[in-house]
Amino acid sequence: MRHHRIVFLGPPASGKGTAAMALSAALGVPHVSTGQMFRAAIRKGGPIGDAAKQFIDNGQLVPDEITIAVVRLVLDEQGSDSGFIFDGFPRTRTQAEAFDGVLRERGTRLTAAILLDASEAAIVERVLGRQSCENCGALYHRKFVPPRQSGICDRCGGRLTQRADDTAETVQKRLEVYRQVTLDVVRYYEKAGMLKRVDGSQPKDKVFADILGLLRS
């Protein structure tokens, strides 16, 4: 199980990050989110990190070719024998096709592309209720994972805040991008026979159990 090579797909707020982190802990496989890999590349500097930083600082999406170059850096750092769990990558069909090529160069292939599916109504409810601790980063939800004391982090007592972009208007824009761009990635992996679907609207423990069941089947 330690050599699983997995990507998580799904609409925004479908629970990809939560599921990926839980699976990483259970399997002992490194979890890499899109944000993490870009931040690491930027910290290291060099042509690739500097190029990624320029786009991110300007509020633009990092182009596919730079994203793939950053992924190569991640895989090189982890070593050829290590598995991985990517969360939020690949985002486009071009990235998915290029990623397959990168893995073939290394004599390996993807184990599974796990799609966490959820209705748009469920996603909007999740996004509008999300909160995080401004001190330690712990995550909460007003309805599903409320703190013991409203507005206060259970872990460290820090203040809970909502991301400025967690608005109904923003989530609708993100859903539209998902429909226009990332659904093509879902179709790509489905055609390749690697897609595994999980109902992301379920409680997180049930989502996790379903994922483990699919990987073991």
Describe the structure.
With 217 residues, the protein is of the alpha/beta class. The chain has a domain at 5-118 and 182-216: Rossmann fold (3-Layer(aba) Sandwich). The chain has 8 helices and 8 strands; from the N terminus they run E-H-E-H-H-H-E-H-E-H-E-E-E-H-E-H. It has helices at 16-27, 34-44, 46-57, 64-78, 93-105, 120-129, 168-191, 204-216; strands at residues 5-9, 31-33, 84-87, 112-117, 130-133, 139-141, 160-161, 195-199. The strands form 2 sheets. Strands 2-3-1-4-8 form a 5-stranded parallel sheet, with helices on both faces. A 3-stranded antiparallel sheet has the order 6-5-7. Helix 3 (46-57) crosses helix 4 (64-78). It is globular. The model has no long low-confidence stretch (mean pLDDT 91).
What would CATH call the homologous superfamily of the domain at 5-118 and 182-216?
P-loop containing nucleotide triphosphate hydrolases
Please provide the count of β strands. 8
What is the ordering of alpha helices and beta strands? EHEHHHEHEHEEEHEH
CATH fold naming of the domain at 5-118 and 182-216: Rossmann fold
Proportion in helices: 40-55%
Radius of gyration: 18 Å
Which regions have little confidence, pLDDT < 50, spanning 5+ residues? none
Q: Report the principal-axis shape.
A: globular
CATH class bucket of the domain at 5-118 and 182-216: Alpha Beta
| Termini Cα gap | 12 Å
CATH architecture tag of the domain at 5-118 and 182-216: 3-Layer(aba) Sandwich
Main β-sheet, spatial strand arrangement: 2-3-1-4-8
How large is the count of helical segments?
8
Average pLDDT reading: 91
Please indicate the percent range of residues in DSSP E strands (runs of 2 or more): 5-15%
The major β-sheet equals:
5 strands, parallel
Structural class: alpha/beta
